[in-house]
Amino acid sequence: MVSGPRILLTKNQIKKAVARLAAEIRKDYQGKQPLLIGILKGSFVFMADMVRQLDMPVEMDFVKASSYGTGKESSGKVHVVQGLKTPIKGKDVILVEDIIDTGLTVSVVMDYLRKKKPASLKLCALADKPSRREMPVTIDYLGFTVPNKFIVGYGIDWNEQYRHLPDICCID
Ligand code: 5GP
């Protein structure tokens, strides 16, 4: 049985973390116009808040990776199912992900992006669950390290539910 969501990180904590990450990115990309690429669907709220906090010109695109389906466990096989609409060759790309768990999803998406020869490629993640890592991942901009719990809210779902919650919550 699934019990109701419990708050793990409040909307105020999230707001502060997004502001901190935006400040770091703004500093690192002075005089540049980075291309932010969000992984659908879970990153859409984080992306929307991030671009407004960045307060600098950016481009945006999205990719979709096959992932958890309807359960809480990854199938272990990840591939890009909806690709880029923007050419990224020579661009400064920042990949934006909601949660990094085993690391498989971002590893596959980073490989997909690298083949398209961006000038630079960095990774920004709202949350990291390092306890379950299977693939080594370098996170350049990280919001929170979270315990090994199933997270929902702030754009992140369980079976397409809970994306609307303003806080990051966990469910059993
Ligand atoms: P990974 O490939 O790193 O194991 O998993 C990354 C993907 O799984 C993310 O895109 C994210 O959508 C999903 N995921 C990982 N942990 C959680 C979680 O705690 N809650 C939800 N809802 N999705 C998760």
Question: What distinguishing features does this structure have?
Answer:
9 strands, three-stranded antiparallel sheet, Rossmann fold, 172 residues, globular, alpha/beta, binds guanosine-5'-monophosphate
Brief characterization of the structure:
This protein is α/β, with parallel strands linked by helices and 172 residues long. The protein has helices at residues 11-28, 44-54, 104-114; strands at 6-9, 35-40, 59-65, 80-82, 92-100, 120-128, 141-145, 150-152, 168-171.
Structure explained in plain terms:
- With 172 residues, the protein is an alpha/beta fold.
- The protein has one domain: Rossmann fold (3-Layer(aba) Sandwich).
- Helices cover 23% and strands 29% of the residues.
- Helix 1 packs across helix 2.
- The longest helix is centred in the N-terminal third of the chain and has 18 residues, at 11-28.
- The mean pLDDT is 92.
- The structure holds guanosine-5'-monophosphate.
- Guanosine-5'-monophosphate is lined by residues 39, 42, 67-68, 74, 78, 97-105, 129, 150-152, 156-158.
